[in-house]
Amino acid sequence: MANVAVIGAQWGDEGKGKVVDWLASRAEIVVRFQGGHNAGHTLVVGDQTYKLSLLPSGVVRGKLGIIGNGVVLDPEALLSEIAKVGAQGLKVTPENLRIAENVPLILPLHPALDQAREAARGGDKIGTTGRGIGPAYEDKVGRRSIRLCDLAEPETLSAKLDELLLHHNALFRGLGAPQFQKQPLLDRLLELAPLLLPFSEAVWERLDAARASGKRVLFEGAQAVMLDVDHGTYPYVTSSNTVAGNAAAGAGVGPDTIGMVLGIAKAYSTRVGSGPFPSELHDDVGKGLGDRGFEYGTVTGRRRRCGWFDACMVRQAVKVGGINGIALTKLDVLDGMAELKINTGYRINGELVKRLPAAMKAQAAAEPVYEVLEGWSGSTRGARSYADLPAQAVKYVRRIEELVEAPVVLLSTSPERDDTITLRDPFAG
Ligand code: IMP
What we know:
3 domains; Adenylosuccinate Synthetase, Chain A, domain 3; binds inosinic acid; Adenylosuccinate Synthetase, subunit A, domain 2; Adenylosuccinate Synthetase, Chain A, domain 1; 429 residues; four-stranded mixed β-sheet
């Protein structure tokens, strides 16, 4: 049975929500495997708009959602998201949501540390969402996380909080920030325990059973390859591995379970937060893309930086992310532009390179090497087959396929779910 993993192929916000929603309607289980409530997916279902950060998109489509161990889970954010969608008529219960018992928790000290660190960086901010994602992952690899299962063992919880506070309060002292007291944290976690533990289980067993019975599983990535903690524009990245390889470790399945890897790429580029962006546009063309594409962060509300499609970077994302096919989104935003540019490589200190190097100064010095294509005057908006597209638009898509070395298997031509050109069913393997 073929499963599908969906990951972002640029810097996030590629329009994953729509594609994931469409795929979720064809899957039986949807699993989040990394990130936390730094993600933001907008799903439009009938007359309801759901803004999800933590819940796997499938729950909106009546599917089983799983939050894997690779996620960092803020219990307060989860409960408020459950309450918010509940008010819209969507009930989230242990029947339709399961959470890995070994998932690390985000506690109030994590966003406090995230924000204190960003403030201390002055003009050199990462531009994090301030939600504590980085500090929570640090605690995980530092082996001091409070995990969901700890809520069932008050004595373990108490001892682990002592260890955690010893570490964090030393940091807060150094940053001149307020200290955290143990008792209020412990009391709140013990209050949360009966609300959260009914969702907790060894999700790897359920996923193993799903595999045995041939159920279709969708692994829903958050953020994107260029924000991957190893492969992205470090240190201007998130703190998890966003590549498809992490779907296995972050859910508790073998690598052969992942199946087809679909990379979502926007027909141009955007980025929120700081960091290198070689094909960024600082002129009216970039502003036009931002206005037409309505480029504002779902989580932060910040205006996104905009630029030309960077095929060199997406090719790199295809290779390191394990992407077998591309879903190209927001092609209609390019409608009516006289000319389009695609970045094909970088000139760095006079030398032409075909990959974005890892070193910070080299990344900052990378200048795009553009190929110029003619635009199209007709509309691609709402097209549902290649025959509906202007010839130049087809050329643009074909050129992207060649340059990124992966086929475009889905093409999204408007925010509407059905305005999609499907060239290959990802679940067909
Ligand atoms: P963090 O994940 O909050 O630590 O933020 C680290 C970087 O990742 C910042 O540049 C954020 O703007 C970016 N980031 C985190 N989540 C998303 C997302 O869902 N879409 C786009 N950028 C994100």
